Amino acid sequence: MAALLLSCASVPPPNDALSTAQVALDQAIEAQAASYAPHQLQPALEKLELAKRSLAAEHYEEARRLAEQARVDARLAEALALSQAARKGVREVQETTDTLERETEQPLY
User: Fold this and answer.
1) Is the whole model's pTM more than 0.90, yes or no?
2) Phi (first) and psi of residue 31, to 5 degrees
3) Is the separation of the CB atoms in 84 and 40 below 8 Å?
4) For residue 9, pLDDT beyond 90
5) For residue 6, how many other CB atoms are within 10 A of its CB?
């Protein structure tokens, strides 16, 4: 029993893991993941919240694991959001190019 208590006490609080996950979430939100990748962003938000609760309850290993999962989910949400935003930009440029091409093909009177 004493060994179990010592092993739990030797796990440090995963403050760095939570901070890293928070930064990843902030970046995903900045990349407009709420609009472009909400299904990937929501689990990241939920896992970070659970990680914070686990940290407060001094369940450090669980908090670290959840924070790492939140970070990975947030990075995925960010990547998908950036990809979708880039695709949207390409579509807009293509539409503008198509419009300009049509306008230049019209005869001038």
Assistant:
1) no
2) -80, 5
3) no
4) no
5) 9
